[in-house]
Amino acid sequence: MKLVYDVADKPKFSKTLIFAFQQMIAIMAATLLVPMLVSGYGLEADVAAALFGAGIGTIVYLLFTKRRSPVFLGSSFTFLGAYSASIGQNYGYWGMIIGVTFAGLVYVVIALFVKLIGSGWVHKLMPPVIIGPIVALIGLSLSGTATSWIMGNGAAEVVYGETYSWVSILCGLFTFFMIVLVSVKGSKRLKLIPFIIGIGAGYILALVFTLIGVAAGNTALQVLSFQPFIDTFSNISLTSFVDYPKFFFLKAIQTNGQYPLDAAAIGNIAMIYVPIGVVELAQHIADHKNLGSIINRDLITDPGLDKTLLGDGVGSIVGGFFGGCANTTYGESIACVAITGNASVVSILTAAFGCMVLSFITPFVVVINSIPKCVMGGACIALYGFIAVSGLQMLHKVNLGDSRNLFVVSAILVCGIGGLYFGFGNNAITGGALLNITSLAVALIVGVVTNLIVHNGKLSSGEDVSPAAKGKKK
User: What's this model's pTM, rounded to 2 decimal places?
Assistant: First the structure.
């Protein structure tokens, strides 16, 4: 696609700050939601610490990739089951840190393997007929989160007549429509910051509804919570304005002895986290294939899959040490690049430093925590939708008139959207599987096997190689 700012471009400082803030807004909700969920499992995870961890993890990633891959790393949802299992087995804070380290080391080992044999196998294993629907699947699989946030404003379960809210829907759709209007009808300058304007407008509308609801005593209109402000500013002190994040490693040190770990426990932690690190490889490759198609570069070749894996793995280890949660390349960040046309790595780097600095600024964390989920859901319609569409764009060279390719694409989409997963063993603590191969990884496996079956044991790209197609390319 045509970029307004390429990877190596350096916008003016004032513009860079605005672009960086937009990247932060795009990744903020999901990044902060993960530690909130972890806190629900029984360990206190600080959202400010997770924000700091995402920032420093992104900086590590950019260093390893030689500042050629413009994407932000944020808290990964894929590891939630692992967090729940390790916390449930009373492994505590060190258990999570050790687990995330194991998962990150998986990437490091695979990176060394790629360094030795090269990355050519990636293009053979994941041609357009495979990687296209996989990338589309990443966006489509997240769509349920966006719509549930819009309908229920973040309720655990949307029930019509109870948590289903028309006010939330109005705020969410208004946010989305504002993003669309700014992106399509706005001035050249405004088109670069559609999410700041859209989320800001949605926040104001939610605030108006909430104030009317408070005045009228109508709780249904109160979609914005003032509780974060009350908790922070009811008793004014220095920490109401500046406070250090409650880093995960500090909590681990403070609770030394409370959660004893022996060799058997560490081995069990490895069994919980390592498989997830392996299956995350599929999303890592898909994200970089997707980002590469947007910035018109093959990131698997330059800076190289070994570099991106090292950056992701080590960045996750460092981020987890501070924030507790494993990091991963964020589709929201990639979608933000696609929508705005701003691929400047300087913007990503500034966003990373910004997250680290702002994690100490209490009012900023409070405001971010107060953004209604329905507003973020509206923004996610655009973000997740662009991820899905970018995957579909990868299929434009694929001959979907060939039933063999249709079987491959349909198998991936149905298995992924339907949520087919492979579960092994029984976790007595959580009641679920001891080892869970995610639906994304299963969809990839089924797609690759289907591709081999329909092409007699050979992997096909699925591209149309007919004379008519070649003539069109010319």
Answer: 0.79
